[in-house]
Every structure is written in structure tokens, then in C-alpha cells.
From TrEMBL:
InterPro entries: Amidase_Cbmase, ArgE/DapE_CS, Bact_exopeptidase_dim_dom, Peptidase_M20. Zn(2+) 1 binds at H87, D98, H197. The keyword Hydrolase applies. Binds 2 Zn(2+) ions per subunit. The keyword Cell wall biogenesis/degradation does not apply. Homodimer. It comes from the Bacteria. This is Allantoate amidohydrolase. CDD domains: M20_bAS. Its cofactor is Mn(2+); Zn(2+).
Length: 419
């Protein structure tokens, strides 16, 4: 009996349930999944994934960045390669689907292709990236930077909470950090990179759509602000004479919220506040806070920055407060390749789903992989948009839809190109 898309999706669901138990936590339903880079759980996950890859007839290789790659090979050894995959690591007490679903869905696709003896004129490599989250070493996008050829050796000196360096952890994992540069793909050999990921937002669920196509991965910038006022007794200093730093911070919070709500494709947050001297009856003298802005369009984000900082300067001047501000992080937006977006939209439509294009407000391995090749991305709806949490949930039936979309995408790509 021929394997159906639905059955392949059910197989992916079965795998997801099994690998969720590979975790530092003892109960993934209640306590989530914790699987960090170059740990015992990482090794167990790769062993489990490797077994499923072998069952699908794939050739396996591990690299010196602790990535696992399974190849569904073309009959032509010199054929180019299409990369599919995502990360297997998690945040502490994370969900069962963030990242790992994007490894197991391509693996279910390979099982479907192999079952139907569908040959491709290109190699199809399924990648389980080693460390996208950066939880253990703050080494975000480790695995994808290795494959893209943008890994910086200085990252090897990063330490975890126990003082173990990334270099030593990789050595203990069986890798040779000094040979990481040898593990990159040659740019000319790669057709593109496509990732499937849970949306981590509520839009697809609200619109009743199982799957959507990503247009871009957001650009991000973060600022640290220190607002300086003057401490005083809260009962004796008249209100009109106060220099209250926390009142200034409240103005900043309002300005961020107001600007982001009024600007399309812009989101922002004041995520962290420290107040001093933080006494119940003391006027705050200093308030430190962070501002984060995100947009898939860098011009929008940069214009918003200029507008926001101008408004903040004016508001704090009115309150007789002094401001120190510095940019502490900036990541440019990455656009998904139009050709891949259109092919993925066509595959979604051919699967009987109304195409919906949306941008990713979170970072993904594509941020690194775009230095190597064109990137594309699919989102699967998730319940209430929850992610990085034990309550992360998906509809199992959506996995079959995703397998169908991927199958239509790769077979159309094979038929459309001249090889």
C-alpha cells in the first residue's frame, strides 16, 4: 500500500513524541524539553535521528560543528544540493516542536519519496543544526554558521555556566574544532535552503490556515537607555519640581508602544527595567531600560529608530531628565528569495490551501544560511502562537499538509530546472 502524505505526517508526529523524551527534564508535557548543545541529550537525539535517516536509505555524516546531515542522494554524484532542515536544540523547558519539527518533516518527506521511488536530479540533504538557540554558550546559530562558512573561531572561547568552553565541549562531543572551516558547503553546489518551523505567532491559527510562506526574517536592533533624574523624599518634593527618572521611563514605554502600533511591519518592546534607588518612598534617580525594535524591512526599522529617539529626547527634556543611550545589538533583515517564495506559494496552492505570506518576527538558521545560498521558509500554525514553553502545541493533521507541500515543492523544482 502506497504511503500517503497523511501517513508520512503521522510518522513525523510519532517521531516528535519520541524525541521529546530526549531531554534533561523528566516530563516534557509538564516541564518542557531541555536539550542543549554538545550534551548527552544532544548525542542521544543525533543517534535517534541517525537511525531514522538510515531507515530511509540516507547516507549520514556528522561535522565538526556537531551538525548531523542525512543525504537522499541523486544518481548523479556531481549534482547540486538542496538543503532542508532546522535545529534540534531547545531553550530551557521549551516546547516539543520548535526546531526539531523542521528536521523531522523533511525526514518524513524523504520516507515518502523513497517509498514512491521518486528520484531527484539533485541531492537532498536534511540537516539537524547543532545550536540555533545559543542557550548553553550564547553561541547563536553555531551549526548554520559552520555550514555557511561564516563561523568565527573566537566563538570557541565562549563558556557555559560551569566554565566549559565551546571548544572543549565540541572536543568532548567528538568534533575537531580546528577543522570547522572544512565543513562548509561550497556556494556553487547549493541550490537553496528551506526550513519548516512553527509560526511562533497567532496569525495562521486566526485565519484557519495550516501553513504559510515566509517572506523575510526580521531585522532586530536593541538599545540600552539610562535615564538620570534626581532622588528626593517622595513626601516633601512638590510634584512640579521633581526629576523622576521612572516617570521618564514611563514616557519612553508609551512612545515605543505608540510608534509600533502606528507603523506597519514594526514591532517593539521595552523588555527590561532597572530602577534606582528603588525605595518605596524615594523619587527614582536613575532608570535603565532596554528597547527592542523588529521589522522585516530595514528602512522601516531605521526610520522608526530615528523618529523614536527624537521623540524620546524631546519628552525627557520636558521632564528635565538626562539621557544616555547606546545601540547594543543590530541584525539586518534577511529577505527570502523571491523564486523560492513563489515556488513554495505554488506548492501550498497545489495542496489545496490558500497561500498566505507573512514575515518571521523571530530569528532562524536562515539568518546564517543566506550567506551561502538563497533561503526559503514555511510556517506551520501553532496553538495560540505559544512557543518556547511546555504548552507549545500543533495540530497533528497539519504535518501531513506540510509533507505534501514539501513534496510538491521538490518535485516541481526537479521538473522545472534543466539538469
Amino acid at each position: 500500500m502506497a504511503l500517503t502524505y497523511e501517513q508520512a505526517g503521522a510518522l513525523a508526529w510519532q517521531w516528535l513524541e519520541q524525541i521529546a523524551r530526549v531531554s534533561e527534564t523528566d516530563d516534557p508535557e509538564r516541564n518542557g524539553v531541555t536539550r542543549l548543545c554538545a550534551t548527552r541529550e544532544h548525542r542521544q537525539a543525533l543517534d535517534m535521528l541517525g537511525g531514522w535517516m538510515r531507515d530511509a536509505g540516507m547516507a549520514l555524516r556528522s561535522d565538526n560543528g556537531a551538525n548531523l546531515i542525512g543525504r537522499y542522494a541523486s544518481a548523479n554524484p556531481a549534482a547540486p544540493t538542496l538543503l532542508l532542515g532546522s535545529h534540534q536544540d531547545t531553550v530551557p523547558h521549551g516546547g516539543k516542536y520548535d526546531g526539531i519539527m523542521g528536521v523531522l518533516l523533511p525526514l518524513a518527506l524523504v520516507r515518502y519519496l523513497d517509498h514512491h521511488a521518486i528520484a531527484l536530479p539533485f541531492h537532498l540533504d536534511v540537516v539537524a543544526f547543532s545550536d540555533e538557540e545559543g542557550t548553553r554558550f550564547s553561541s547563536t546559530l553555531l551549526g548554520s554558521k559552520v555550514l555557511a562558512g561564516t563561523f568565527e573561531p573566537a566563538m570557541l572561547d565562549a563558556q557555559d555556566d560551569q566554565g566549559v568552553t565551546l571548544r572543549q565541549a565540541l572536543i568532548d562531543f567528538g568534533c575537531d574544532p580546528e577543522r570547522i572551516a572544512d565543513d562548509r558547503y561550497a556556494p556553487g553546489e547549493v541550490l537553496g535552503f528551506v526550513e519548516v518551523h512553527i509560526e511562533q505567532g497567532p496569525q495562521l491559527e486566526a485565519e484557519g490556515l495550516p501553513i504559510g510562506v515566509v517572506s523575510a526574517i526580521t531585522g532586530i536592533e536593541r538599545h540600552k537607555l539610562s535615564i538620570h533624574g534626581l532622588a528626593g523624599h517622595a513626601g516633601t518634593v512638590p510634584m512640579h519640581l521633581r526629576q523622576d527618572a521612572l516617570v521618564g521611563a514611563a514616557r519612553v514605554i508609551g512612545l515605543v508602544d505608540e510608534l509600533c502600533k502606528a507603523t506597519d511591519e514594526l514591532v517593539g518592546v521595552v523588555g527590561k527595567i532597572d530602577n534606582s534607588p528603588n525605595g518605596v518612598n524615594v523619587i527614582p534617580q536613575r532608570t535603565d531600560l532596554t528597547i527592542e525594535l523588529r521589522s522585516p524591512d530595514d528602512a522601516t526599522r531605521l526610520a522608526a529608530r530615528e523618529t523614536l529617539l527624537t521623540r524620546i529626547d524631546a519628552a525627557l527634556a520636558e521632564l528635565d531628565l538626562r539621557l544616555e543611550q547606546r545601540l547594543i545589538y543590530e541584525q539586518a533583515a534577511v529577505q527570502c528569495a523571491p523564486a523560492l517564495v513563489s515556488r513554495l506559494e505554488a506548492a501550498v496552492a497545489a495542496s489545496g490551501v490558500t497561500p498566505r505570506t507573512l514575515f518571521s518576527g523571530a530569528g532562524h538558521d536562515g539568518l546564517a544560511m543566506q550567506a551561502l545560498c538563497d533561503i526559503g521558509m514555511l510556517f506551520l500554525r501553532c496553538e495560540r502562537g505559544i512557543s518556547h514553553h511546555p504548552d507549545e502545541a500543533i495540530d497533528p493533521n497539519d504535518l501531513g499538509v506540510a509533507v505534501e507541500v514539501l513534496a510538491r515543492f521538490v518535485t516541481a523544482l526537479a521538473e522545472a530546472e534543466r539538469w
